[in-house]
Amino acid sequence: MSHDTVKVGLVGFGTIGGGVAQILLGKKEEIRRKTGKTIELVKICDKDLHSDRGVELPAGILTDDLSEITSSPIDIVIELIGGLEPARSFVLEFLRAGKDVVTANKALLANHGPELFDEARRLGRTIAFEASVCGGIPILSSIATSLQANTIKSINAICNGTSNFILSQMEGKGADYDDAVKEAQMRGYAEANPSMDVDGTDAVQKLTIMAQLAFGAKTDWKSIPRTGIDIVKAVDIRFARKLGKRIRLLATAARSGDGVELKVSPTLVSETSPLARVCDAFNAVEIVGDFVGPVFYQGLGAGRRPTASAVCSDVIDTALGRSRITFDALSLWSDKKESVRIVDPADTFEQAYLRFLVQDHPGVLAKTTGILGNHGISISSLLQEPEKNNGANLIILTHKAPAGKLAAAVQEIDESSFVLEKTVKMNVQEEEHDQQ
Fold first, then answer.
1. What would the DSSP string read from start to end of 252-275?
2. pLDDT for 433
3. How far is Cα 13 from Cα 49, in angstroms, rounded to an integer?
């Protein structure tokens, strides 16, 4: 793309789209001074032509006719409608009409990345997608370019602001889970139906994208072990504090032999860890490279302004040709590029936090620990306290053990007559001195 004026179309004029329009229209001269390119937003397509987005638009720029995008001499199209369809069909249409694409749609990439990227390569086009993960944090470009000299050893990411806000409310204000969800909804951090945030779906889709970039790990996001924060109760927050821990929803990718381990789970992290200090709707990503060591990124992971910032950065990179270099070099989701092996979750090793609600009777503790011992699971810490209705909360931190054996032990305990509720199981992050 060598011409000095780059024409841009925007499809989807909601919250994020309004922020993108605000930047591209309001900072047009500033961008030209910095880049030498005039980036001109010429068309915005949305089915709603009347709602106020808080942006003053030039006359004739807003339309509900998609053909005004596809058939116009537009160089870059920004897709911000979200979801899988018609987003998938639209992106294919834009590529086939000779447009490069910028998107913030992590669900689209996690589900249809191979198809879309193959088509873009076939047509000589690019897809840029920084805003699809962690909003305003430039994590994807960091992995793809700044850390290229490193073999990445691990990624630990707090990449869902809604879940982090809910956990922060439970931790800081002593709120129970349901009240914390209502507060998140009231503040606009959570949807009316927050299931994709709280059950870990959003985080695991973002992990799929990061793992593809960092490790070349091609996998169906549905196959990645996933536990959401909807299992966390106030009692877990309280016990975590007693253990010197905080609970965070972590999306984790780590090298293991010749493969990569992937998972999303509420995780107990040391209160001295930088991840423990990430609160409210903020996101954070901790990456360990073989030469650079640990690096830490933190910022707002969602919302109009940070996400719009990332989208516009992709537009500028595409206009300057930087996206083309990165897109070609990475060969993302390409059949020509061999995928690293995904380690079977049952073959991984993990330290676990287990909360059992059991009958408060003599011998129950011995039976519970006996089952763990029979499966080769040793205990690091144990706490117990009475619960209402003649029950007791039994909290056990295990030593590191095979995930398959942990799962089998938990299943056997859950099937025992002395158990009153299904066991809550979360991961425990290793202390830094244990990782060295």
1. EEEEETTEEEEEEEEEEEETTSGG
2. 42
3. 9
Q: Are 225 and 252 in contact (CB under 8 A)?
A: no
Average pLDDT over the chain reads: 93
Is 206 one of the annotated active-site residues of the chain?
A: yes
Banded model confidence at residue 432, pLDDT cuts 50, 70, 90: low
pTM: 0.91
Asked if 398 and 380 touch (Cβ cutoff 8 Å), the reply is yes
* Cα(169)–Cα(28) distance, integer angstroms: 40
Strand partners, 41: 8
Overall size of the chain counted in residues? 436
The tokens describing 377, both together, are 């699971």
Q: Are 140 and 314 in contact (CB under 8 A)?
A: no
Tell me which of 7, 99, 206, 218 is the catalytic residue: 206
Domains in the chain (CATH in brackets) are 5-135+307-330 (3.40.50.720), 139-301 (3.30.360.10), 348-435 (3.30.70.260)
Tokens read off for 251: 């999306």
Query: Distance from CA of residue 254 to its chain's centroid?
Result: 15
How many helices (H) does the chain have, and how many strands (E)? 16, 17
Stretch 403-429: mean pLDDT, rounded?
A: 96
Residue found by looking up tokens 């040709």 in the block? 321
Give residues with Cβ within 8 angstroms of 210, minimum separation 6: 133, 139, 140, 143, 155, 157, 251, 253, 285
The torsion angle over the Cα atoms of residues 319, 323, 328 and 331, rounded to 10 degrees, is -140
Cα separation, 105 vs 298, in Å, equals 21
pLDDT band at 434 (very low <50, low <70, confident <90, very high): very low
How far apart CA 354 and CA 334 sit, in angstroms, is 40
Query: What does the pLDDT look like over 180-225, one tens digit per residue?
Result: 999 999 988 888 899 999 999 999 999 999 999 999 998 999 999 9
